[in-house]
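dumping this here before i forget
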Amino acid sequence: MSNNKIIHWFKFASPQSFYPLAGKMIPWFWGLTAVFLIPGLWISFFVAPTDFQQGEGYRIIFIHVPAAWMSMFIYLVMATWAGLGLALNTRLSGMMAQALAPTGAIMAFLSLWTGALWGKPMWGAWWVWDARLTSALILFFLYIGFIALQAAIDDARRADKAGAILALVGVVNVPIIYFSVKWWNTLHQGASVSLTKAPTMATTMLWGMLLMALAFWMYSIAVALTRVRAIILEREAHTEWVKELDEVKA
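structure:
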């Protein structure tokens, strides 16, 4: 790759350059969300066979598992952006981390809530202090703590740095969540989908799971880009380009 191309892409690290790019990408990701979500829901709830052990109640995994995956993945991405902002002092990095946190918190909450609905008929309890569940709850609190910490500090740059430290410290919890079913004797079942092993579910179930995971992924990107544009306008309100943008809209 030539130096000119590197410089061309690096310019999008500027909020002013990234703002219109995000605006162009958002409709595409909303469209992809619908493309994956509609067939994903259809396969998951109407085509996939009934589980011989769990009956129809197992279908909640098509919401629960993608939400759990995304809660962990978004946290890693959020921490990466926060770390880049802390190391390179780039404005957009902190904005991206701030934009990702609410979606990650929603995914973490959704995984806990659907897990409780699944756990009641399977385990006979809404909640147990299982290693997987407890570490997932800690992840939710890390998201809430990150959001609250940033909201408590008026200066945006100081808030980004404080949030980055919390986000980076909390990264250690992600592998604990993922490997908890292997490291400890837990009630939570092991992974049905793995990169190193053949899936343990029917093909139609696997397709439903993957389509729903892609839908959740596209949704998360679309929402994060929408939110970061709002954050850019709020933080850059004093700049000339935002003032000019307001005049054009008016």
